[in-house]
Amino acid sequence: MYRPDSTAIDDPALLRDVMDQISFGALVTSLGGEFEITHLPLLVRYEEGKTVLEGHFARANPHWKMEGPSVVIFQGPQAYVSPSFYPSKAVHGKVVPTWAYIVVHAHGHFETVQDGAWLQAHISALSDRHEAAQSKPWSVSDAPVAYLAALKRGIVGFRFTVDRLEGKWKVNQHKSSQDRQGTYDGLMASGEQGQDLAQALASFPEKD
């Protein structure tokens, strides 16, 4: 991934936290010059000093048969940045539109898991993770056992071991303090994703 120094984020703990917050990624695997891409929810684990992603494929998806080197792309908040955000526009006019975004790439390899007990624990953990905010959380145990057994036969689990993480925060952190403030104010008025990006911008120290 192209990452100018001002945008590169390499703190593994921060990147794991962001992947966990996004919790949905695009798994990309290359085989014989062809690319297979699957978009899916993922659980982020940290085990014995290694970052591990857990997920599952539909058994009908041929991607699960392509075990090997892959990358998972986590796309975070993104928003348009208008030249009108910048106070410098009124001074010299040398400004253009851009896009602000946060992204994490996890490089590694995956291995499939077809053990019934593992799949049961996986779908329970995945459901619990995303049902926690509901007023009446749904649980895997709420569904009939025979129904769940049939569904489990239609999926294949996998564990993705991460060898390398790289992140990119492109939020105008390299701009002057005035244009940073203009970017912050503009993003804060750009909806939920813009607000998340504005908070990310605020976390960077200002240029001297």
Automatic annotation (TrEMBL):
Signal peptide: none annotated. It holds the Pfam family FMN_bind_2. Gene3D superfamilies: Electron Transport, Fmn-binding Protein, Chain A (2.30.110.10). InterPro entries: Split_barrel_FMN-bd, TR_PAI2-type. This is FMN-binding negative transcriptional regulator. It comes from Celeribacter arenosi.
